[in-house]
Amino acid sequence: MKFICLTLLIISGITDSISERYEVVGSADPVFAVAGEDVILPCSVKPNISVVDMRVEWFRSDLKDSQLVHLYEDNEVRNREQIQSYRERTKLNHPELQRGDASLKLSSVRVSDEGLYKCFIQSKSWSDDTTVDVRVEAVGRPPVITVDGFDHSGGLHLQCESEGWYPEPDLEWLDSEGVSLSSETTETHRNTDRFSVKHTITVHHSDDKIHCRVRLRHHMLETLIISSSNMFSSWRTSVIMISVFVVLSVIAGILIAVFARKNRDHDRLQNEKSRLQNEKRRLQHERDQLKTIIPKALTHLRTHKVNVILDADTAHPRLTVSDDGKQVRDGKRRTERVNRGKDRFDIYLGVLGKDGFSSGCFYFEVKVKEQTRWDLGVSRESVNRKGWISLSPEDGYWTVGLCNGKYQAYESSDVSLSLSVNPQRIGVFVDYEKGLVSFCDVESMSHIYSFTNQSFDEKLYPFVCLGYRYNTSPTPLIICDDY
């Protein structure tokens, strides 16, 4: 007995020493990237060892949902759960993995790429991670100076404008000596992910060089205008004539446009009104037909209702299954230790039903209301529950789900689903002999997706999942019994 205890202590000590010997390092300072260009996010193991046979995962630690950026596992890239905006833009340098370098190349940088990235490396005996802070700068268009007229004292109004910057840039006026001049008015606007700035100033000097400069931390653009005495005198002479001409032109243009547009709009509105009335009658007719057909179909499906109870022994350690086995949520606040048995999911937040079915038809309903990330359907009894899972029929899963705000069915390649409403309650119907797995939106009584002509050769179990790694929603998935 003493020998066994001593052996366990030695093994534990060896494991601890291995964990302490290696560390994952990145960059202590923020990594600056320019929008549209490529950037390298540093990550490596010190001292250098090969990470070819290890798990290398890059993910956004500052995002709430679906934060995977790049995953390398079992000597291959597995980016099925990758954030959509990163598709085809991430890459590891595979020869460098042999030297412990797991740096990530991010191509065609976008403003939305700014944030905190975590590089997680895991072997069979140790794991560690590091965080890389990425700051993105977008260089806008060169500033444009325009003459905006004179004031009553003869001062020349100048306006400087530039757009397409990120983050918000600084704009300043400078005289010929490089002395900063105070702007009279300033405007800043943000359009999607870029900033535009506009500053005005009044110049009273007859001869001077005026600079408009826009700058970020690492970039600067500048434009020069020379305000001469000729500019002041000629402007005073022509400004009245130009103003009168512009006013008369505008009035004439408005009158012509009003009459022409009035006639065009009348004809277009009449045609559109007629088209909408016909479309309304057609849709009303179809709706009346569906009101009688769909309820009968749903009633038929519900005759195959089965009592689904979730098996807590298969649930990912983060999940909390209710005592009656009807609800499951991300139990991130749970403090009790959970046995990580062979039957549990360890990466996906999945759980199976207790009872499987190997013949006939069966049907159950799951409430997904207010959940932002879920997958559900059925799976074979022998499915892999460890590591990276492909929720496709090839791997024994027949599922649909919601990920990154998009609904999809998980075939060998994902199928995007265009749904008219967001499902609140989903029905799952299986006909074992016909090889059919079908999904419907119970409340809108509409079909979602069907897997047809499938081949089943073992028990099928109900399967629900709250996504990958973690789920921020406090709302549970609920197996429904109230029908």
Please characterize this protein's 3D structure.
- The chain has 483 residues and is of the alpha+beta class.
- The chain folds into 4 domains: 22-137, Immunoglobulin-like (Sandwich), CATH 2.60.40; 144-227, Immunoglobulin-like (Sandwich), CATH 2.60.40; 233-293; 312-479, SPRY domain (Jelly Rolls, Sandwich).
- Helices cover 20% and strands 37% of the residues.
- It has a 7-stranded antiparallel β-sheet with strand order 20-21-32-23-28-29-30, covered by helices on one side. It has a 6-stranded mixed β-sheet with strand order 2-11-10-5-6-7, with no helix packed on it.
CATH topology of the largest domain: Jelly Rolls
**How would you characterize the largest beta sheet?**
7 strands, antiparallel
- Give the CATH architecture of the largest domain: Sandwich
Shape by Cα distribution: flat
Whole-number mean pLDDT:
84
Total strand segments? 32
What's the structural domain tally? 4
Low-confidence stretches: 1-19, 232-244
Count of DSSP H/I helices: 3
What do we call the CATH homologous superfamily of the largest domain? Answer: SPRY domain
CATH class division of the largest domain: Mainly Beta
How large is the radius of gyration? 32 Å
What order do the strands of the largest sheet run in, or round the barrel if closed?
Answer: 20-21-32-23-28-29-30
Which assembly state applies to the chains in this document?
single chain
* Beta-strand residue fraction: 35-45%
What is the rounded distance between the termini? 58 Å
Helix content: 10-25%
Secondary-structure-derived class:
alpha+beta
Main location: membrane
GO biological process, one term: T cell receptor signaling pathway
Subcellular location: Membrane
Domain B30.2/SPRY: 288-483
